[in-house]
Design brief:
This protein is mostly helical. Helix content is 67%, strand content 3%.
Length: 644
């Protein structure tokens, strides 16, 4: 009976996953877009709903508009719910019209990046708009009854049953609507042949707007109803997109009923795993339940590798152009010289910023290699970096392996992890791989990074300061001498070496093979290129760069913890690399400048106190604009004449 109790308790979270998955299916049917910001839309509207219930104020999500608008002194549940869902519908329409409608002919990378920009923007705007209260301060009294229902020895809160009922009823209504209404028929026509639908008088824009409004309402309703169960946290709630996509994939992102039952099943399995961890002492106390969506995604993509979209489609060729690399050595020399001069002449705050930007540049180079040169969209960069950092700490602390052997071994572990993570890329690429690696990043954070013996637990692990032949290369110093200039030089030199290595590989035989695979896998294979080998080689180089960034980040932090390698760090790394220019080392440098805590952050704080608080929100907006208007990135605008 205990197992049955936990399975039924899982109906609540399963219904949330199912409703989010149905929303993913609805928006994908109308636009062929998998919106990674879908759960974040629901998160924002849910927080706005509960704030409206408490204060009568509606929190607006658009920079430049007033943060809050007073509507009524104390709205009822029904009034607040109607207002919140209306806001969700309006938000869905605006997102489609202003972002994804403009990207209807764009390659998958641009659409993925735009949805990541939306995700980052919504999380950032919630941090700004709710900074005086926060999610923890909201009173989460859900609209659904939560009294215990007792059936024999089975005692389950009523809201679990209600959530499942709501999910089933909405699926029935939507299924009937898509089958028999004009909107449903028009949606199917647009999904099958958009150009043909226009010829028979169907407006793809109108169909897209209505479906995106519906998807946003579903996301908002799911999070509002389930907030007392899942707890409202901007980052955690936004990552519900991973199990939602996992539930939608078995039905090829097209079946409402498969999304419903898969979502319920995932929630119930996760709940039962939590129960088994309590009963079976031999199971590790880690987030095993987060492995369920990852396994579902991998299995779905492996069995249906060509679902979204096929590997041979020409849309993959329309990626940002790659510079020929003639000026990479000059650029590296200038950047390195400027960094060294600044390190020896500027104060402590600027030295810290230079170190942060240099490490972020190395992480961005990892994205440049895998995504810019090969077209593989990986969202697990910081997961691999974290594996390298924690492995390095274990080698040095537990086995007394000195510098530089310990970091080299940590990087080697990262390369091995990267090869394992790239296995899905042998069969899939593009959007498929982005989904798989995002799920992998979440799984690593919940499974690997929760192993206390490996990461040190919540307290983290103390990093042994690097030294070579008795010469201290660490960051520690007293007062204004922190960070030590010696460590700054070490980081800058490693950045310069990484930039030169990437440039040399790019202009060599291996780089040309990467670009051939990036352009068209089938054509590359026909020309004699070993596609699998090219992908694995790129993954190895990318993982080595991520590992280098991870060990340097560990040395910088001195006490390294899981918080340094969370999933959103990977999303931000990919986002900033795309914004700056994802196909060149110079773009990686600009991405480092844009990184939080880096040169731009310090510069903004120097200009105006608190200006850097808006950095992530503005970066998210710029990312969306770049995906639409400047797909080659900021550096690409100035290097168009020297591309290949």
């Amino acid at each position: 009976m205990n197992h049955l109790t936990f399975l039924i308790l899982g109906l609540g979270s399963g219904a949330v996953i199912a409703l989010l998955a149905i929303g993913v299916v609805v928006s994908h049917r109308a636009s062929r877009v998998v919106n990674f910001g879908h759960a974040a839309i629901g998160m924002y509207v849910a927080m706005a709903y509960y704030e409206l219930r408490a204060t009568g104020e509606l929190v607006l999500p658009i920079l430049g508009l007033p943060a809050r608008v007073t509507l009524v002194s104390r709205p009822t549940v029904a009034t607040a719910l109607v207002i919140a869902l209306a806001v969700a519908a309006l938000l869905g329409a605006l997102i489609y019209l202003l972002i994804f409608r403009l990207l209807r002919d764009a390659p998958p990378l641009a659409r993925v990046v735009a949805s990541l920009g939306l995700l980052l923007y919504l999380i950032a705007i919630v941090g700004l708009r709710f900074q005086n209260t926060g999610a923890a301060a909201l009173v989460l009294e859900g609209p659904l009854p939560d009294r215990l229902i007792t059936t024999g020895s089975l005692r389950v809160p009523a809201d679990r049953y209600w959530l499942a009922v709501v999910a089933v009823v909405l699926t029935l209504i939507l299924s009937a609507g898509y089958r028999w209404t004009r909107l449903g028929l028009s949606t199917r026509a647009v999904a099958d042949n958009e150009r043909g639908s226009v010829l028979v008088g169907i407006s793809p824009t109108a169909v897209g707007v209505l479906n995106w409004m519906l998807a946003a309402v579903l996301a908002a309703l799911a999070i509002i109803l389930a907030a007392p169960i899942i707890r409202l946290d901007p980052s955690t709630t936004s990552l519900l997109i991973v199990p939602a996509i996992a539930a939608a994939l078995p039905g090829r992102l097209d079946s409402l009923w498969v999304a419903l039952f898969a979502g319920l099943a995932i929630g119930m399995m996760q709940s039962e795993l939590l129960n088994l961890q309590r009963e079976w002492d031999w199971l590790p106390d880690i987030g095993l339940q987060q492995g369920v969506p990852f396994l579902v995604i991998l299995l779905s993509l492996w069995l249906r590798g060509g679902v979204i979209p096929g590997r041979g489609e020409t849309s993959f060729a329309r990626l940002p152009a790659v510079p020929n690399g003639n000026r990479d050595l000059l650029i590296t020399a200038v950047v390195l010289a400027a960094g060294l001069v600044a390190t020896f002449t500027l104060g402590s705050e600027w030295r810290t910023a230079i170190i942060v930007s240099a490490i972020a540049t190395i992480m961005a180079l990892s994205v440049v290699v895998l995504t810019g040169f090969v077209g593989q969209i990986s969202l697990a960069i910081y997961a691999i970096a974290g594996i390298a950092a924690f492995a390095m700490v274990r080698f040095s602390a537990d086995w007394s392996i000195p510098f530089p052997l310990a970091p080299l071994l940590g990087i080697l572990v990262a390369v091995i992890a990267g090869q394992v993570a790239t296995l899905p890329a042998i069969r899939v690429r593009g959007l498929n791989l982005a989904i798989a690696t995002l799920a992998a990043a979440v799984a690593v954070e919940e499974l690997v990074f929760k192993l206390g013996w490996f990461t040190g637990g919540l307290a983290g692990s103390t990093v042994t300061s690097p030294s070579l032949f008795g010469w201290d290369l660490g960051i520690s110093a007293i007062g204004d001498a922190f960070p030590r200039r010696t460590f700054g030089v070490l980081v800058l030199v490693m950045m310069g070496v990484a930039m030169i290595a990437v440039s040399r590989i790019r202009t060599g035989v291996v780089g040309r093979r990467w670009l051939a695979v990036r352009s068209n896998e089938r054509a590359a294979a026909a020309a004699g290129v070993n596609v699998v080998q090219a992908k694995l080689t790129a993954a190895a180089v990318s993982s080595a760069l991520a590992g280098l960034g991870g060990v340097l980040l560990a040395y910088q932090r001195q006490i390294v913890s899981v918080s340094s390698f969370i999933v959103f760090a990977s999303l931000v790394a990919v986002a900033l690399a795309y914004l700056a220019g994802i196909t060149s080392p110079l773009g990686a440098v600009f991405a480092g400048v844009l990184a939080a805590g880096g040169i731009l952050t310090v510069g903004l704080n120097q200009l105006s106190d608190g200006a850097s608080d808006y950095q992530f929100a503005v970066s998210g907006l710029f990312l969306i604009v770049a995906a639409i208007r400047v797909p080659q990135g900021l550096t690409g605008v100035f290097t168009r004449k020297s591309t290949v």
